[in-house]
Amino acid sequence: MKDTVISVHELTKRFGRFTAVDRISFEVKRGEIFGFLGANGAGKTTAMRMLCGLSYPTSGRGTVAGFDIRSEGERIKRHIGYMSQRFSLYNELTVFENMNFFAGIYGLSRQETARRAGELLERLDFASERNTLVGALPLGWKQKLSFVIASIHRPEVVFLDEPTGGVDPLTRRQFWEMIYEEADKGTTIFVTTHYMDEAEYCSRVSIMVDGRIKALDTPEELKKGFKAGSMDEVFGMLARQARRGE
Amino acid sequence: MMIVILIPIVLMVLFGFAISTEVNNIKVAVVAPHRTDMIREAVTRLERNEYFTFCGYVGEKEADMLLRSGRADAVVVFATDYDRRMMQASEGLPSPALIQLVLDASDVNTAGAAQAYLQGILLGSASAQDMFETRMLFNPRMKSAFNFVPGIMGFIFILVCAMMTSISIVREKETGTMEVLLVSPVRPRRIIIAKMIPYFVISCIVLVMILLLARYLLDVPMSGGVAGIFSLSLLYIILSLSLGLLVSAIARTQVAALLISAMVMMMPILMLSGLLFPLENLPAFFQVISCTVPARWYIDAMRKMMIQGVPLSEVWLDCLVLLGMTVLLLTVAFKRFNDKLE
Amino acid sequence: MKAVEVNDVSKRFGKVEALRSVSFEVERGELFGLIGPDGAGKTTLFRILATLLEADGGTALVDGMDVCRDYTSIRSRVGYMPGRFSLYQDLTVEENLAFFAALFGVDARDSYSLVAPVYRHIEPFAKRRAGRLSGGMKQKLALSCALIHRPSVLFLDEPTTGVDALSRGEFWDMLTDLKNSGISILVSTPYMDEASRCDRIALCNDGGILGTDSPVRILQRFDSPLYAARADDMFALLGAARKVRGVERCYPFGQSHHIVAGRDFSAEEFTRELSWLEGLCLEPVKPAIEDVFIKLMQK
C-alpha cells in the first residue's frame, strides 16, 4: 500500500564543466521521513531545487508527487510545501493572516481556508493566539507555525531545510512530534540538514558526497554498516572522502 | 511609509507653486539722468507690478555696486534723450537702445524671466526688441553651465561624502566587522577618522577637477579668488562627512543608510537649495526650511564667488552658517558614534 | 584570578529581558561552553563581556578587570569572534589577517606559532577573497584573526553555526589545542551534542542559566531512570506510551523515544501493556544533555 512519492533515476545537473549532481537515484515512499544530508557544496541544494521544480536537470528523470520534474515543474510546486530555517512568516501579520495569505497563494477557497486554519490552530493549541502578530511570538512557536503553514494546502511532500536548528530541546521535541504526526497521516517529509542529530529522527537517510549519493539506509543500519557510534561519525567517514575542494 | 506619502505632496507643492521659473520679487534699481514724466510713469508701472521691488533711483556707479553685492537683481538705464526718442518710436521710427537693461545673470532663469517682464512693463506690448539693449552681467553669454557648476558641487560632495561614508560604515555594522573593530584597542575616534579619510581625499580630487574644468572648459570667471572657493569647499566637504557619520549612527542597514541619504539629503538639495529653481519664489514655509539645508548656503556662496566675483569676505554670512552647521553636526555625530553598540 | 567572573548580570531591551541575573565563572585555561537555544541571551552576554554593551545590573570581570571601568585594557586582551564571521569579504585571507594584526598593533609573524595550527588549514587559499570561502574556512580564518594578538581570553559566539559536521569536529579539536596552550575560552553553541567537548558548561535558556557544571556532572543531575523505546510505528508508540502508568514523560529522541520513568514505572508492565505494537523494544539508556535540559526547563 505504500506507494512511491519521490522517484529519481540517474538525475544529473551540470553547470558548464562542473557536475553539481552526478547521477543520483533514489525513491521515497509515502509517509516516510527522508533525511538528505551532505557537506557544504556536496550538491544538496542543487538536487533539492530540481525536486522542487525550480531547476531543470541536465539529464536523468524523476517524478515528485506523480509529476515529471522535467515537464511538470509548475504542477509539482502546487503539491509540495517548503519550510526553511530562514523562511520566515510575515512578522507584521497576525497568525491567522499568515495562514490566510499562504492559503490564498495555494488557491484554497475561503471556506477551506477557514476550516484548515481552525484545524491547524487547534492542533498547535494556538486558538488564543489567532490574532497575535507573528513578530511577537517566541522563536520556537514561529517555527512550529511555519511548519503547519507549509502544510496548509495538504501537500504530498513537505521539504524542510534545517528545521530545528537553534531551537530549545523541548520545542524541538514538540516539532518532531508534529512531523511524525504529519508523516503518520501520509505526508512525505524530506529533510535537508547538516546537523547529524537531526538525521537520527529520519526513517531513512541519504548522504551526498561530491554530487553523488554515497550511502542510503536507516540511521541504524548506517551506523552498523560503518561500525560507528553516531551519525556524526558515519558522516565524518564519508565526508572525508570528498575530493571536491571547498 | 510616511516618506512615500509625503514626498509626492511636497513635490507637487514645490513644482506647482514655488518652482515656477517665473520670478517674484526682483529688485530693480533705476538710472535716469532726467526724471521726466514719461520716465516717472514707466517707473510707477514698475513699482506697482507684483513681480518687482523698486529700490530707487541711483547713479551709475551705485548701480554697479548694488548689482555686485546682490542688493539689486536688475538695473534699468533710461537713455538721456528718452522722451524725444520715445515720441519718435510712437511714430513708427526705429529707435534703438532706448533703454538699457543690466541684469544679474548668475541665475539664468531669474534673469531671463526678469528681462521679458521688464520689457513688457516698461514699454507695453508695443515695444520692439531693438529698443532695448540688454546686458547680462557676469555671464554675458548666458551659459547655463555657469549656473549649474556651484549647484553640482553642492550636490556631488553630499553624494560622495555623506552617502558613501554612511554606507561604508553601515556595511561594517552589517557584516559584523564593526563589532571586531570596536573590541580592538583602536579608539573609536580613530576608526571614524580612518573611515572618513578616503572620501575626504576623493572629494578633494573631485573638487580640483571640477574647478579646473569650470575654469578652463566652461570659462567660469572665478574672480572671487580660488583660495576662498577652495577653503569654503573644504569646509563643506567636512560638513558632508559629518552628515554621513550621523546617518551611519542612525541607520542599521545599508539600505536604510541609502534611503536616509537619498530622502533626507538629496531631495532637499535638489529642491530647496536653489540648484534647480530660484529660492525667491518658494513659499515662505519652504524658504524657512531651505535655511536648514547646508547646500543652500554653500551654493549661494559659490555662485557669488565663482560667477559674480565676490571675495570670500563678502559671503561671510554663508561661511558663518556653514561653519556653525559643521561644528554642530560633527559634535552630534561623534557623540552618537560611541564605542558601544547601543 | 579567574578568566571570567559574571555576577548577577542582567540586561533588558525595552520589554524583553535578555539576561536575568546571570552568574558563572570561567577558570583560567578552561574551555567553557554556554549551551542554549537561540534567544537564550548568549550573544547579549558576549557583548557585555566584550565591552560592547553595558549591563543594567551586576558586575562582570574579564581577566580580573571590570568590563565597564577597564574596558580599554580588556579590549587588548580579549579575542572576540562575533556570531557572524566578521571578516572583510573583499579582502583576501592573508589581507584579513594582516589587517587584524595592524588593528591590534602586532606583527603577524610574532603570533604565527599560536595561529599556525588554525591558519595552516586555510593557508593554501591565502590569496582567495574571504567572501569566496566556505563556511568552515571562514570560521577558521575568523578564529585566526581573533588569535592574532595573542589574547588571554577568547570569546567565540556560536562559531559552529552554519558549518558542516566535519568542519565542526575539526574546529572543536582546534579549540582543545588552544585551551591546552593556556588560553581561556568561552564559547557558545545551540547544539547540545557539542557540550561534551567543553570542560564545563552552563545551560542557558530564556535569559537565565539552568545549571553550570562539567558535562559529566550535569548528566548526573538527571536523577530519574531513563528508557529508550522503539517500535515499528513510532507515532503510535508515542501516544500509547504516554498512557502507561508511571511514564512521567515520553518524547521523540532521534531513532527512539525517551521515556522518563516515575516511581511506579515497571519495564515489564510497559512491554506487556504495549505488546500489541509490532517491533516493540525497551531498554534503559544514559541521559544526554538534551534530556537534562528538558528536565531543567520544566522545573
Overview of the molecule:
The complex is a heterotrimer of chains A (246), B (342) and C (299). Chain A is of the alpha/beta class and 246 residues long. Chain A has nine helices and ten strands. Helices cover 36% and strands 27% of the residues of chain A. In chain A, strands 6-7-8-3-9-10 form a six-stranded mixed beta sheet. Chain A has a four-stranded antiparallel beta sheet with strand order 2-1-4-5. Chain C folds into two domains: 215 residues, 3-Layer(aba) Sandwich (Rossmann fold), CATH 3.40.50.300; 72 residues, 2-Layer Sandwich (Alpha-Beta Plaits). In chain C, 32% of the residues lie in helices and 27% in strands. In chain C, the strands form three sheets. Chain C has a six-stranded mixed beta sheet with strand order 6-7-8-3-9-10, with helices on both faces. In chain C, helix 3 packs parallel to helix 5 and helix 4 packs antiparallel against helix 5. At the B-C interface, helix 7 of B face helix 2 and strand 6 of C.
Draw up the topology in text:
The complex is a heterotrimer of chains A (246), B (342) and C (299).
Chain A: E1 4-15, E2 18-29, E3 33-38, H1 44-51, E4 59-64, E5 67-68, H2 73-78, E6 80-84, H3 95-105, H4 110-124, H5 139-150, E7 157-161, H6 169-184, E8 188-193, H7 196-199, E9 204-209, E10 212-217, H8 219-225, H9 231-239
Parallel strand pairs in A: 3-8, 3-9, 6-7, 7-8
Antiparallel strand pairs in A: 1-2, 1-4, 4-5, 9-10
Helix pairs in contact in A: 3-4, 5-6
Chain B: H1 2-18, E1 26-31, H2 37-48, E2 52-57, H3 60-69, E3 74-78, H4 82-90, E4 99-104, H5 108-123, E5 132-137, H6 144-175, H7 177-183, H8 188-216, H9 226-250, H10 254-272, H11 284-290, H12 294-308, H13 316-336
Parallel strand pairs in B: 1-2, 1-3, 4-5
Antiparallel strand pairs in B: 3-4
Helix pairs in contact in B: 2-5, 6-8, 6-9, 6-10, 6-12, 8-9, 9-12, 9-13, 12-13
Chain C: E1 4-13, E2 16-26, E3 31-35, H1 42-49, E4 57-62, E5 65-66, H2 71-77, E6 78-81, H3 93-103, H4 112-119, H5 135-147, E7 153-156, H6 165-180, E8 184-189, E9 200-205, E10 208-213, H7 215-220, E11 226-230, H8 234-243, E12 247-253, E13 256-261, H9 267-273, E14 281-284, H10 289-297
Parallel strand pairs in C: 3-8, 3-9, 6-7, 7-8
Antiparallel strand pairs in C: 1-2, 1-4, 4-5, 9-10, 11-13, 11-14, 12-13
